[in-house]
Amino acid sequence: MNLSRAVGYIIRNEQRRTERRQETVQESTIRRRIRNEADNRRRPKRVCIRNDVEEHNCGTMSEQCGFCGAVYWKEEKNTAHKEINPFAQSYLQMHRLVQEHPTTSVKMVFLEDKNLDMRRYNASTLCTEVAAIFVSDNGEPPANRDICVYPVGNTCQSISPLNQCCDPMTYPLLFPRGECSWNTGMEHVEERRTAKRTRVTQLQYYAYRLSQRNGFSILHNSGKLFQQYIVDAYVKTVGSRLHFLRQNQKDLRIELYRELLDALECRAHNENIRTGKLIILPSSFQGSPRHMQQNYQDAMAMVRKFGKPDLFLTFTCNPSWSEILNSMEGVQRPEDRPDIIVRVFNMKLKELLEDICKHGIFGTVLAYIYVIEFQKRGLPHAHILLTLDSESKIRTKDDIDKFVSAELPDPCTDLRLFQIVTKCMVHGPCGTININSPCMRDGQCCKSFPKQFKDDTEENVNGYPIYRRRTTEPVQVGKYSIDNRWVVPYNPWLLKKFKAHINVEVCASVKSVKYLYKYVYKGHDADSVKIQKEGALDHDEILNFVECRYVSAPEAMWRLNEFNLSHKSHTVVRLAVHLPQQQPIVYQDGQEAQAIERAALRKTTLTSWFELNKNDPSAHNISYSDIPQYYVFDKSTTNWKKRQRGGQNVIGRLPVVSILDSERYYLRMLLLRKSGAISFDDILTINGLRCITFQQACQEYGLLRGDQQWHDALN
């Protein structure tokens, strides 16, 4: 008899009670009675689950239902649970405390404020989604939590989220035997162990736990509880990583080389001076504002080299893909398996990029970037920007019509495409037809639907084309009547192949470039929320709201799998721009002298470029920003070495410098234009005249004539 499906169905019907039960971390022994339904054997059997049902009775199940055989058993009340779960007594103790001290009922209120960035603060449109919401700085998950247990007596004891008993005590249904979870001392098995890696990381443990294997899995059949477990695992993993950084960087500081020297000279007079500023979070933390800003600047470096992007695509996961539906077990729905959703979408995204970049459905692609988003919609989607070569550029309205359509196809000539368009590419409807649509803002559609009818495409109107939308007879889609005004632009070939929402837009002008790049690098999802007691009056409608980060189960699963959140076709090398003896130095408090000695021996990418120009005449005609295309910076020796291969996919980028930091700003202007410099003095020397400041050097070089520098700074 296949009992695993019966257990899966029991868990499925127990979800709502289970989620409430997990909040109080209590459990009662569950005994089941499955009733026969002779009137309809094809329907799944109804399950009655109570706290004190003594019989477990499975009636006859036909093969049509996916079951075979029958079973009947009976056991003593609570006996099995007490025997297999070491935390059973703890649950009973917690249950008793909850009965004696009832919990306070509260509600979480979400603020919808049109003044907030609705691309990040948009409300969730899925009631089936489980997400974590936490107060954060720059999207950092909390390292510690208020997890409490009550041993014998009424005393409260806090436990760390790193405690191996945390998971089995929080999720008793997922750990029925009370199995211990990850701990800091967990070691790799012999065949996986290496000299550098002997212990299992928290991320590796959860990636292992969340992987699907042969046989029945309670975890993967627990519905919303599975989503909660995924979100919890991600928040704990990243929170622990940040906690490690805080603990190991508490004495780590950063200062400029010259200022550190001055501080050491002053220390003899004042021992209380503490140099530098404290650094905690590295810019490599994915999703932080600094990380997104760096990615945005990298993308703009690609624009500087290849020009504006030509196409903007939004590719959204379709939960009805056969690869997803065929992986469902029993009565599962796609939202129950975020692990399958993200894996299938990741494979589809790779296939889409292969069709675009290798097979050239739009022509030859010079460069591309993509960013993955979730945005409280439960499904991952990718924003993709493509830059085409000169022969493939989309210049005329005929070129636009060749690749992009914003019309309903004729069902008589292409019924399959018509069905996909009406299912995946119709906006809303919204407006007066449906005023409750999520896109409505102050009575208007934020996407400007419905569009106007248009007999011919216009290439460029305020940076964007206006697509052809000819007047046609409306068609019935569901309960709404729609026409070409409601169609989201698409590419017919891509739509027929991937059967998903794929919005394709043409970038007609450079005016739209920065908006598009800032759109895709806008940052993590957020909410403005407050906690309020049920029945309590609160007259402060805004001030009590706090900014929180929002992490859904698909996003958590994507990050736990370490899939790319963003990707570029080219490697961008970030180059240093600093004044003489003002390179930043990272050091530990109390080790300033040693840091200065190390800095004196190690070169930056800029000072090493000076050395390269002294020793290699072939580098004299290469500007500083282009040097990474021909040379590799060896961090161990801090020297530039000639590339053997692969330079065509590398771009150098100088950091953005504020005009308020005037000397660095003007040094950057010179570095973008002068090649072959062997020192700072060489950069300051223009036509044989040694200038005092870099601003004067720019003046002599002719870079400050007129207002062009201010236009460049603003652009």
Automatic annotation (TrEMBL):
A Pfam family the protein falls into: Helitron_like_N
Ranges in coiled-coil conformation: none
Domain Helitron helicase-like: start-end pairs: 205-386
Protein name: Helitron helicase-like domain-containing protein
Organism: Araneus ventricosus (Orbweaver spider)
